[in-house]
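Async update (no meeting this week)

Hi team, since we skipped the sync, here's where things stand on the single-chain job. The sequence we agreed to prioritize is pasted below, unchanged from the tracker. I ran it this morning and attached the output directly underneath so nobody has to dig for it. Comments welcome in thread, and please keep replies under the output.
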Amino acid sequence: METYFLDWLELVLRWLHVITGIAWIGASFYFVWLDNSLEEPPRWKIDNGVKGELWAVHGGGIYEVGKYRLGPAKLPETLHWFKWEAYSTWLSGMVLMVLIFYVGADTYLIDPRIAELSRIEAIVFGISFIVGGWLLYELLCSTAIVTNGPAIALCLTFSAAVASWALTSLFSGRGAFIHLGAMIGTIMAGNVFRVIIPSQRALVAAIEAGKELDPAWGAKAKLRSTHNNYFTLPILFIMVSNHYPMTYAHTHNWLILLALIMISAFARHFFNLRHRGIFRPSILVTSVIATSALAWVLMPVRAIPETKPANSISDVEVTALISKHCVACHAAQPSHPAFTSAPGGIALETIAQIKRWSTQIRAVAVDTEDMPMVNSTNMTADERQALGQWIEKTAKR
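Output:
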């Protein structure tokens, strides 16, 4: 019963995380687009301090939007702030992290084949990476390098490479990927909490007090907002990556993670340039080619030798093998304490069910060796080969 309620808690939190994430990333996309799409306003608006304007049609109406160079002489009674989307996304994500990867560390985070860690050690390492990644980013932003776009991008890419390698040397593939995502998410939320909102509060307070406005407030906030915008596509990939073992369960998963982060951030650059009227389709073409090349390189080599009659396994033996390694989770009523129903709705209790899901079984148990999860049942290479041979033989029937 406890697992059942934890499943509902996870569902609600994941739902909330997706909803708030859509709101946060949507706001990031919109405001970067808006800022990059502003046009020079008429003289009378410029004389009133307006830097740029934009006209748009949406929802059956015409909108006129203007941005002040610094701020208006007087603020309106209602001023909309954008912060709770960021805070809610980070908070729900961290609670999910604790619930899935820390409470369930033995199942999802610790892989004895990679590193023999206790639950406490794994949690301490995980939190240290999240906090350490944010501190390193803040250190970089405190130097002159922060205003040099290519230089800060290079430093962040190198940092991501080191973190990816280190995390995949400590945790399961799933755990490593999600911790790098948590590092990026913490940096993004930290930008909102520590720089963007305080800068905007200082601007508002100065306007209300009739004091001189400092252009540095807006510049700092815009720079961190731009960083967040480039982080959005990488973090979206990490959020969905746990569904694709060909990425996180690969031998060189840290390089795959780094490659997809770089490709997605580069693709985001196309749209940011496009908003400013700079059209460079070569960026998207390069991103597509790079992704296609990565997919080709990762394609599993299905070099399963022909099974000799003496070594061939029967349907009965395959059923026994699956029962030994898979049915604890993949059953109508799982015996594994982490599940109350078969993950993904995939039950493997009968030979008919095994045949139905044989393609998926091969992908996660033979091609990537992602299952059993962290190989908790010690499935051997010979068993995987025998299973692959049986699936190959079954597919030819």
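Quick observations from my side:
Residues 86-298 form one domain.
The radius of gyration is 26 Å.
Reply here if anything looks off.
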